[in-house]
Amino acid sequence: MSEAKDGPYIFDGTVLTQYVGSWQNVVVPDGFEVIGSNAFRSLDKLRSVTLPASIRRIGSGAFADCPSLYFVYLSTLVLPKIEDGAFTGSPVCYLMTADGVNRIQEVE
Fold this sequence. Notes:
6-stranded mixed beta sheet, globular
């Protein structure tokens, strides 16, 4: 497959490979299954991300070095696989699922 672009999202099939927008609160469209490695890395203004129920995996470094990112909302009850370093350097401490809050490891 080859990469395509739809608005601020660059993707390859069901893999969101890069976000190129500047929104503070991002809602990822339904249909993506993977947030690719480094897809949202180093976005200074990003505060929250809402992921669709279709997400199955969050790649390494996907949300790394996002100093204003505190919350990731999931539209599902099942946590996706979270690869090592997905949130390194970001203050995210919680993934909020459809039925409550699931704590993830503290990020230093």
